Amino acid sequence: MEFLKSDGARTGLFFGATSGVITTIGLIVGLNSGTRSITAVLGGILVIAVADAMSDALGIHLAEEADPNTDHGHVWAATIMTFLTKFVFSISFAVPLLLLPLTTAVAVSVAWGLFVIVVLSYFLAKSQDESPFYIIGEHLGIAILVLVFSHYIGVWVAATFG
């Protein structure tokens, strides 16, 4: 675990995991609300796991390279960790969809995603000597807003174009 002691790896881990969770549960909720199709939801997860993980990794790579005080090791650690964590967390949401009925799988996915946000927020707060309750509440609030907006976007798309 020496790799995780690097600032770049921590950056990639927190960014990739958070982005993987928020993006994927937003997509799951929105696509489910708009289509009620396991094919659409599962396809969306697989696209997020690959294309969005690569996109976020490149975004972190460029952002880190833009800092003149950042060395190449930091840049590549952040890039690789962003891709790996985004991919793994995003793809983990396919498991409930493969094992459970769609409605149950969506609920399990949301619960799993919110749990990951709580755990990440707790470790972040502890590492910065902050109150875990405030940090967890702030991050859960943002995640819940994403879910609400995603649901209503899916409903609107279905009503408008369905």
Task: Describe the SSE topology.
Elements: H1 7-35, H2 38-65, H3 72-92, H4 94-99, H5 102-127, H6 132-161
Helix pairs in contact: 1-2, 1-3, 1-5, 1-6, 2-3, 5-6
Description:
The chain is mostly helical and about 160 residues long. It is about 85% helix and about 0% strand. The chain has one domain (about 1-160). It has six helices and no strands. The protein is globular, with a radius of gyration of 17 Å.
Rg estimate, integer Å:
17 Å
Number of spatially distinct domains: 1
Number of helices: 6
Compressed to H and E, one letter per element, the order equals: HHHHHH
Index terms:
6 helices
Short account of what is shown:
The chain is mostly helical. The protein has helices at residues 7-35, 38-65, 72-92, 94-99, 102-127, 132-161. It is globular and about 50 Å long.
